[in-house]
Amino acid sequence: MGGASLLRLAAVLAAGMVVTVAEAAVPPPLPVLPIPNAAQLAWQRREVIMFFHFGMNTFTDSEVGTGAEHPSTFAPSALNATQWMDAAVAAGASLAILVAKHHDGFCLWPSAYTAHSVRASPWHGGASDLVREFTDAAHSRGIDAGLYLSPWDRHDERYGREVEYNEYYLAQLHELLTGYGRVSEIWFDGAQGKNVTKMTYHFQEWFQTVRQLQGAINIFSDAGPDVRWVGDEQGSAGPTCWSTVNRSSITIGDAGIEEYLNAGDPRGTDWVPPECDVSIRPGWFWHRNETAKPLSQLLKIYYNSVGRNCVLLLNAPPNTTGLVEDADIARLREFRAALTRIFGTDLAKGSAARASSERGVGFGAGNVLDGSDDTYWAPTPEDGRRNGYWIELRRPAASVRPFNVVRIQEHVALGQRVERHQVFVDGVAVATGTTVGHKRLHRLARPVAGRTVKVWLAARRGVPLVSAVGLHLDPYATDVM
User: Fold this and answer.
1) DSSP label of 5
2) How far apart are CA 239 and CA 177, in angstroms?
3) Residue 66, SS3?
4) Co-location of 377 and 447 in the same domain
5) Please, is 460 exposed, middle or buried when counting C-beta atoms within 10 Å of its C-beta (0-12, 13-18, 19+)?
6) How distant, in Å, are the alpha carbons of 26, 36, 82, 196 from that of 31?
7) Is 335 within 8 Å of 295 (Cβ atoms)?
8) Whole-angstrom distance between the N-terminal and C-terminal Cα of the chain?
9) Could you tell me the CATH number of the domain that includes residue 435?
10) What positions does the domain Glycoside hydrolase family 29 N-terminal occupy (predicted)?
11) What is the domain extent for residue 368?
12) Do 332 and 196 share a structural domain?
């Protein structure tokens, strides 16, 4: 050993800073595959995102157009995409998705591959591009942009001719994914109406093209590959909801897959978490005689979507002038204010946490109270194999306030593991459930003011990794039970 090395060692010894094996960091547990990629994980943490259905149907008072509408029908008088972003901000959304082309085939951008677009409309003399206005408005407000391009096209004569139409569709996909900056989500479905020309969509070619053009994008369809449909349009996941499925078991557009999509598959080999799409109004497009759902219904949707391991995709349809109704924006603002009121205060704060076991330094029970998704409690591998695992919060006696919502979150970056769980307050069971995932919310029948809150968990394929246990008071609960 050289002289300099000896001097450094002597300095360490003199300072009493000898590092022992016992003080070495404990590594994290192995992931349970499959696990989310970075884009999927960021998407899951958004929790609420926005959809905007606007097009020919807005002006014809329909939900599914015929494809025979004349471009002159599209004539908004006061369209302002920045005002649409006001709606997204009101809802607290970080991503907004535009229907760039619906089933009627009318394109909201001046596509080079069809005359059936805004270029042929009277809107700004055919010189405007709504996709451009939408993406620019989103990006200027710090909101990420997404696009939906309907595979079903009731206008284009190539529809039904497999090669020609798929070439046309891919050409338009290329326009949308190269001309408008970053696109964070692309929306596909397998919709085909009854008694219409059957069409084979080349989804795999579409998906690989998307990956080539936008590397960090999330692709939505029944089967993902990144985000899946939840199986209904009511904004409700099943009480059991796994982020995993077997993509090989799903054919996009097929009937009879809704139950599988709604619950997921604990033996699934693909990480494809669900997105709950629902409109703030009864229809996807604006209709004069419809109004926004009441706050109580929106809160119920939130608990059944975000509170069941999903992301909520909430649609706000602009009217014939090209603006989102003031009343709809007010309802979205009321919705976000209610969520802030409920979840802005964690009544578990200040509690002491203990658990059935702890993996070691960095994985203590107290991590469930630090407000970070990136830290978590991990028990020892030997713990809980027969009788499950548990973590308990003891609330300070001086501040035991009533709560009626229990929030549990897994550290899903290393996989989804919990298959059953139960919540006890002062030894009395108050909630029982199956999966947890990114977030599970339990609304109790009535507020309780217990001193101890214990969460018991049974995990699949590895120990549970819990990033948060929170307690909240929902003053609207009587309206949404």
Assistant:
1) H
2) 36
3) coil
4) yes
5) middle
6) 15, 11, 42, 46
7) yes
8) 72
9) 2.60.120.260
10) 71-335
11) 352-480
12) yes
Say whether 308 sits in a helix, a strand or coil: strand
Query: Are both 323 and 357 inside the same structural domain?
Result: no
Radius of gyration, CA atoms only, the chain: 26
pLDDT for 14: 44
pTM comes to 0.93
Q: What tokens does 196 get?
A: 């219409």
Structurally, the chain folds into a number of domains equal to 2
Across the 481 residues of the chain, what is the mean pLDDT of every consecutive 10-residue run? 42 43 80 97 98 98 97 98 98 98 98 98 97 98 98 96 98 98 96 86 97 97 97 96 96 93 97 98 98 98 98 98 98 98 97 96 97 96 84 90 97 97 98 98 96 94 95 83 41
**Amino acid at the residue 3:** G
Q: Which helix (H) or strand (E) segment is 410 a member of?
A: strand 403-410
Report residue 391 as tokens. 């973590």
Per the structure block, which two tokens stand in for 400? 């035991």
Cα 199 to Cα 162: distance, rounded to the nearest angstrom: 6
Residue type, 23: E
The predicted pLDDT at position 23 comes to: 66
Residue in this structure with the two tokens 């090395």, named with its chain if needed: 5
